[in-house]
Write a structure and sequence with these properties.
With 479 residues, the chain is of the alpha+beta class. The protein folds into three domains: 154 residues, Dna Ligase, domain 1, CATH 3.30.1490.20; 161 residues, D-amino Acid Aminotransferase, Chain A, domain 1 (2-Layer Sandwich); 138 residues, 3-Layer(bba) Sandwich (Glucose Oxidase, domain 1), CATH 3.50.30. 25% of the residues lie in helices and 33% in strands. The protein contains 14 helices and 24 strands. The strands form six sheets. A seven-stranded mixed β-barrel has the order 17-21-20-19-18-23-24. It has a five-stranded mixed sheet with strand order 1-2-5-3-4. Helix 1 packs across helix 11. It is globular and about 65 Å long.
Length: 479
């Protein structure tokens, strides 16, 4: 497959994710990233679809109830099918990914859908319409309003970047996938990786690597040196016995990983052949950090997502998406005289917020009450238990979009996902502040405490100052 630039089909908005790739891919290929040929369906490509199905004249004019479901069930014209056929035939039998590309979405927010699918006409139709419908979800509409992104949408079409895994080669996944920053407001850059798929900004429990971790050593030596930190993720099995992978370099091993299998992305115990396992253990992430350094020299600090695949006997670092990293204002100053009631770390976002309420939410029974409170109030501080962002009891952006500050209670019980991962990039893009506090006790001083339909609410004048660069957030009570 030759490496050429993105082809745009149709007129109008293509979204920030596609725009960043269009602008930066040629240079990033020179730097050393692998970037396959891609296509993007621009906004006006879908005008005929909306008109034919009685949904409006265009995406921005779409109206009516149950828009998401009506879009998913909508009919496509022959010319639309033919356009998809022409695009996707380029990839042969390779599965494809339909990815959202909206304004303000290049860093990944988790608001819109992305769908991996078999490269068959009916599967492609379902995938494309599911991604298109996600533009009209309640969370997406609220996100665009809060982040002030403006309207507009395109759909990227990518080939799946994969190696054939499993005993019969029927599990398709990269060796690892991940995301990272070339540098951060707190200092040097980093990457976060998982085996197989799922390494984007919303990945749970990824392994974090910095350049100094892999300087002059192969990946398996790092795993050996940092076994306690890495075995939760890179711990393999062979004949029902568990091993650290470096103990069986080049042997056939099984990892618990996300892979594309039988038309679905699913988490399975996936067999790595001896050759692919050797490629995994010998990954030289220093190469990636050097490419990150060159990318920053060219474009400034960058956020990016990637997939690592073995191709022609060598590891290739496939570029999935990229965006300019946010810059911090230089005028953030913390007070030495105002009474502080809480401090937080793992900060995302920078700025000052004035709030009149702190809302405490300790368990999942609070979510319906919090949803109602959120509809009636704004600019409040949400103080919540980490159990509310677990896999089973998830609070969502649409429940709390009017909050200005999100404070998660620190959990000391075992390893958990990166706290901000649950929210994807939604909070940063919407201008919210986030941090992890080290106590669940609210020391609110003379603040008025009230029961608001089952929620504990503290009323007073609060000021929150946050600096992502300093990794510090402080809540002050102004009285």
């Amino acid at each position: 497959m030759s490496e050429v630039d993105i082809e745009i089909i149709g007129e109008g908005e293509i979204g920030d994710k596609a725009r960043q790739l269009v602008e930066k891919t040629p240079k990033l290929r020179e730097i050393g990233f692998y970037a396959p040929r891609r296509f993007v369906l621009a906004e006006h490509f879908f005008d005929g679809f909306f008109q034919r199905n009685g949904l409006g004249n265009s995406l921005r004019d779409a109206h009516g109830s149950d828009l998401e479901e009506r879009i998913k069930k909508g009919s496509m014209a022959r010319e639309e099918f033919e356009a998809l056929e022409r695009v996707c035939s380029y990839y042969g039998d390779n599965p494809v990914i339909f990815r959202s590309s909206a304004r303000g979405d290049a860093s990944g927010t988790g608001v819109y859908e992305s769908v991996v699918t078999n490269n068959h006409p009916s599967d492609r139709r379902r995938a494309m319409l599911k991604v298109l419908a996600s533009y009209f979800s309640e969370s997406a509409k609220l996100f665009r309003r809060d982040a002030k992104t403006g309207e507009g949408f395109g759909i990227l079409i990518d080939p799946l970047m994969f190696n054939r895994l499993g005993l019969y080669g029927d599990f398709l996944a990269p060796l690892v996938s991940g995301h990272g920053y070339t540098s951060t407001l707190k200092g040097s850059g980093y990457i976060k990786i998982v085996p197989g798929f799922g390494g984007g900004v919303m990945s749970r429990d990824p392994l974090e690597l910095k350049r100094e971790d892999v300087e002059d050593i192969p990946f398996y030596e790092f795993l050996s040196k940092r076994r306690e930190e890495t075995e939760f993720l890179f711990y393999a099995t062979s004949r029902n016995r568990a091993f650290m992978p470096q103990l069986l370099l080049g042997k056939n091993l099984t990892y618990n990983a996300l892979a594309f299998y039988n038309g679905l992305v699913t988490k399975k115990n996936v067999h790595f052949s001896g050759e692919l396992h050797k490629e995994l253990c010998n990954l030289d992430f220093l190469d990636l950090f050097l490419m990150m350094e060159k990318s920053e020299e060219e474009f400034g600090p960058q956020y990016f997502e990637f997939a690592v695949v073995a191709m022609d006997g060598q590891a290739r670092y496939g570029l999935v998406q990229i965006d300019d990293a946010k810059k911090e204002p230089s005028s953030i100053v913390f007070s030495d005289y105002l009474p502080s009631i809480a401090e937080a770390r793992d900060v995302a976002g920078t700025g000052v917020r004035n709030c009149s309420r702190i809302v405490y939410c300790g368990d999942s029974s609070c979510i319906p009450k919090l949803t109602k409170f959120n509809e009636e109030h704004s600019d409040y501080i949400l103080w919540y238990s980490p159990s509310l962002v677990s896999r089973k009891r998830e609070i969502r952006y649409e429940n709390v979009y009017n909050a200005s500050v999100f404070l998660e209670i620190f959990s000391s019980g075992g390893r958990t996902a990166s706290p901000i991962a649950h929210w994807g990039g939604q909070l940063e893009e919407a201008g919210k502040l986030f941090g992890v506090v080290t106590t669940d006790g609210l020391q609110c001083g003379d603040a008025e405490k009230e029961d608001c339909n089952g929620l504990t609410v503290y009323n007073d004048r609060f000021r929150v100052i946050a600096s992502e660069r300093a990794d510090r957030l402080v809540v002050y009570n102004l009285g």
